[in-house]
């Protein structure tokens, strides 16, 4: 009797507890073949936390991250660790774009007065949490974007969000297993069950492109947005090359090294979406057959998605695709907007950065371009040319914050109108900087990474657009979500420059030689100023033995 | 007539070089343009000022606000005048140096006559005649007009052209006894580049000697006018920058702390590239004291009677040891040397110094190209060249001073090098 009462009591408590917390965890996997021979798989783990205040009693949400967010009063946070380069002109657009290396940006709450200190503390804490070199984020590589970035979450319309924003990227950062392991620990099922069991570092670091990310934002609970929820979204984007898995037929076992051991029992929804739009032209079969196929019409492009609902029954699932015949290479449709970035010039004295943006649409489009040059790459605003013109009519608005050596990066933002069917070239010159010998990283002749430029645009068409709409958090909201504008922020490819190096083995020699030259001046000048000229009779020339004797004689004296 | 021809030819050469296709190359040469004086940086500063961005917020502009405003108005109103302006400024500098040397000759003759009694009988033929003295003024003009260092400096349109003009005006003002002109212009030069600060000492002595009367009062008056005008310029600059004194960090601060380690012909760049971080402050202080304060007191005490020699030596030493020297500075003091033509016979290292100047001037651009463009040399090569260039300059200056004291000795004691009939040699004791 007593045990029954206990059981009732506990179950009541448990339901009460769960109802109050009402944490909601969903996991999703989106797979899309990319032209010409690549496969994109995108994992998304979304945790919604109802009451944002008591983050110290988290249920499914990662407590360590929730603590960081509440401690540093972060409104919205985006952290990505990426290896490889997304090829926009070939592959179309990813669900979430990320800069190569590490990228972190966050909006702080308006209550935070000293944003810079808070930002440094935040990056240092995240550095420990993800075993990444985010502690190298400092004032000299942080910018405050004025136009390029906007919060994706719910913010009060009255608040000044720009001053609370900080952005930094570390293009040199190398992403590896040590970042993935702590990232997996934030998930409620860790890597034992659910989709995250597929993330074997042995397999996923073999890809052409991989990016892990953590995104925290506030979302509205209801339409009137009186209450907000905290959304933790953890993402992994992988691009496989068919050449690496050595056939066009893919399966979970080929991609991830094992099948899927069921859904995470704590998730309320576990779904796999496979983009089968290309099945119309190149027929293949999905095994096992999907639970249903949905057709999404969005912004003038149709997408067919095969959907699998995964149950937490622990049964191994191995989804795969088999082509009926050897498929032809698909023709890639160029996306509405694509871009490249490269370095001009030869030698190590003067150079230039070129950003080329191509607008394939029949309408003109407004974009914001953020050029973020580190302090050791001083750009000259007077050399800014757009399509070769100094004062271009394409520029609607411009923001420039000049850099300072070892203190502040160079930050240029341009709001531009790209004419229809055109390529716009932005050129800016820079001068190479000679660093102190201890400021060069190990292997100084490897080169220095220049971070990517940000390009922020509102696309009028959803062609190649795969992002989840801003109001939704899962792929359900993707279906038939036609809007007037499709906002997106791109990262261009990074670049590399080779700075002139000193001879690192020379410090003592240089100090000695330069001081000798100074002494060469000091000695004679000292003599001239303190001594006077006298005539001294020359003795008869003395033999060597005499000289030696003289030496001894002097000593005796 | 000959003089006018010289001006015309020199002006045409400068004007032609500015309009040459290679102008960019000249203006970007590391030996000609430093972060402090390059035309590119001036353009950037003016551009930022024009776009309402504070040029001193960033790290790209290190000129004084007065220069900024001056070039801002010229570029806004009459940009086409700039090549002519730079040429005229450089010719004006040459002319002022010419006038200074003429005044100096007058001055020299007076002191020669005054000290006639001290001269030994057998040294009388060594005294200078009018013809020899007149020649040296012509040489000063020619050297400034046709020295490749000065020509390239002007063709590169560096702000050193302006600085040379200011210093030349100050020297001319001092040699013609115009206290206000001398003090205001040396204050302007100091405001621009800090190192001309040293010159206030020879200028004060020169003014005191020319304007006869109470010497101490003259010193005090000169110093007062200088400090007041310098202070006014500092205030005026802040007024231009809307009351902000931030520009001080980007002008004086930049000169003193040497944050930009781009190679130049000086000693600082590689030394502070290779410096251990915890010794940096110590050595920055040591090197700046060496350039600014170390030699002024002893040299003043020793050469009090020769303020023009003192000025020449101080200009040369501050050029060798300043943080961002360029060939324009070297060209300026080389033009002053022909005033001391009568000392050349007493100099011992003329040949070595001359050869080193020629070799380093040819070798510098070569090893720079090898290091930066073809990647087949490294920084040590260029450092070696700058080091020997500095050594040559030091030899030149110390040799000049030795020559001066040797001549002084010879005038007093005759040219025989014998003591009691035995052969002897001159030594310092």
UniProtKB/TrEMBL annotation, chain A:
InterPro entries in UniProt: PIG-T (IPR007245)
Protein's UniProt keywords contain Signal: yes
Pfam families per the UniProt record, alphabetical: Gpi16
Superkingdom of origin: Eukaryota
Keyword annotations: Signal
Signal peptide per UniProt: 1-22
Listed GO CC annotations: GPI-anchor transamidase complex
One BP term from GO: attachment of GPI anchor to protein
Protein name in the entry: GPI transamidase component PIG-T
Provenance organism: Mythimna separata
UniProtKB/TrEMBL annotation, chain B:
Subcellular location(s) per record: Endoplasmic reticulum membrane
Coiled-coil ranges per UniProt: none
Main location: endoplasmic reticulum
Pathways involved: Glycolipid biosynthesis; glycosylphosphatidylinositol-anchor biosynthesis
Signal peptide: none
Record's GO cellular component terms: GPI-anchor transamidase complex
Origin: domain of life: Eukaryota
Pfam families, alphabetized: PIG-U
Ranges that cross the membrane: 80-98, 193-210, 222-240, 252-272, 279-297, 309-339, 351-373, 379-405
The keyword RNA-binding appears for this protein: no
Keyword annotations: Endoplasmic reticulum, GPI-anchor biosynthesis, Membrane, Transmembrane, Transmembrane helix
Bilayer topology: Multi-pass membrane protein
GO biological process, one term: attachment of GPI anchor to protein
InterPro entries for the chain: PIG-U
Similarity comment text for this entry: Belongs to the PIGU family.
Protein name per UniProt: Phosphatidylinositol glycan anchor biosynthesis class U protein
UniProt source species: Mythimna separata (Oriental armyworm)
